[in-house]
Amino acid sequence: MLFSTAALALGLLPFALSLPVEKRQNALPPVNSGMDESVLQLALYLEHLEMNLYTGGFNNFTDEQYTAAGFPAGFRENVGVIAQHEDTHVQTISTILTDAGYTAVPPCSYKFPYTDPTSFVDLANMITSVGIGAYLGGASMLTDDANLLTAASSILTVESRHDAYLRAGVGASPFPTSFDTALTAVFAYNLAQMFIVSCPQPLPITLLPKLTLVSPMPPPNLQPPTPAGTTLTFNFDPSTFFVAVDPNAQLYIGMVNMVTNVTFVEATSCGTGCVTAPVPEGAAGAAFAVLSTFSGGLNGNQLSEFGALAGPAEVVLS
Q1: Cα 166 from chain centroid?
Q2: Are strands 286-292 and 310-316 parallel, antiparallel or unpaired?
Q3: Which of helix, strand or coil describes residue 251?
Q4: What are phi and psi of 234, to 5 degrees?
Q5: What is the pTM of this model?
Q6: How far is CA 18 from the centre of its chain?
Q7: Cβ count within 10 A of residue 127
Q8: How far apart are CA 5 and CA 131, in angstroms?
Q9: Can you give the pLDDT at residue 77?
Q10: At what angle do helices 5-17 and 34-59 cross, to 10 degrees?
Q11: Which long-range contacts (CB under 8 A, 24 or more apart) does 30-35 make?
Q12: What one-character DSSP code corresponds to residue 259?
């Protein structure tokens, strides 16, 4: 379904006006370097995406539809609160950038493949996991000003609360792993592209060839967790690779999961542009699969910079 920003915002407006207005007296942190700016532009890019997603989840379904799908009373209202939070994040990051003399990236046009409350929440869990990963991955780059790092961290913790609430709503564990997974800017930006129709101002970040998870799809309530050894099937287009690869070369899936750990497993060909690979031992929560010719020895940053043939594909394991 494709929803315009304006229509969604208007639908949410009566709800937003009924909520108490937060008065903010604190000064916004400065942007002290080009690195700060690039991290914040990506954060804003993803916040626009999430605001549109959650606004649609509020506007396109009624309380009765959420209740009929098994969600607790007040769930739709809280989806609206999350949308308001995302709008606050958008306005805050935009102001930080414009105050520093930068042009804040505008929203894109989006298409979200959900059809009912349950598929909306499942999708929101996937997208919010990408946002959490992007904030974690960008934190180490915000070294010029402690206040800016604190501001970004305070958004990250709220995003995590959103995701825990959504997961609990579908009957999944609100905290499936001991650690969340950090994503590089390249990986986070590429994961967002599957929901983008067009953008007036794309970010200057490399677009990688696509890797698509074909099966298995996670159950709606993410229970039971997908066990180690489960066969995953991925599709890709070898004609889009940035480098020439021997059709008979051994390929691998690098699974980024929890912090920046990467576990490499051998991929088995299932035809041109198709491989299978087992879920690695110990993988859980949201993992991110990358097709590579490397069999190991790379961390998440190196895999993103030069080790990826295609990807990433998000794999929700629990």
Answers
A1: 14
A2: antiparallel
A3: coil
A4: -125, 145
A5: 0.89
A6: 29
A7: 21
A8: 19
A9: 98
A10: 80
A11: 30/96, 30/99, 30/100, 30/145, 30/147, 30/148, 31/96, 31/97, 31/99, 31/100, 31/102, 31/148, 32/144, 32/145, 32/148, 33/144, 35/141, 35/142, 35/144
A12: B
Choice among 6-20, 46-60, 146-160, 247-261 with the minimum mean pLDDT? 6-20
Question: What are the tens digits of pLDDT across the range 115-170?
Answer: 999 999 999 999 999 999 999 999 888 867 788 889 899 999 999 999 999 999 99
- Indicate the SS3 state at residue 28: coil
Compute the distance between CA of residue 287 and CA of residue 316 in angstroms, rounded to an integer.
6
Q: 249: which DSSP letter?
A: S
Place of tokens 């010029």: 144
The burial class, CB within 10 Å (0-12 / 13-18 / 19+), for 248 is: exposed
> Which residue's entry shows tokens 């102001």?
95
Residue 285 tokens, joined: 């929560």
Q: What is the DSSP letter of 73?
A: T
Burial class of residue 249, CB neighbours in 10 A (0-12, 13-18, 19+): exposed
Q: Using CA atoms, how far apart are residues 137 and 134, in angstroms rounded to an integer?
A: 5
Q: Is 20 left (phi over 0), alpha (psi -120 to 50) or beta?
A: beta
Structure tokens that stand for 68 in this block: 């009929």
Total number of residues shown for the chain = 318
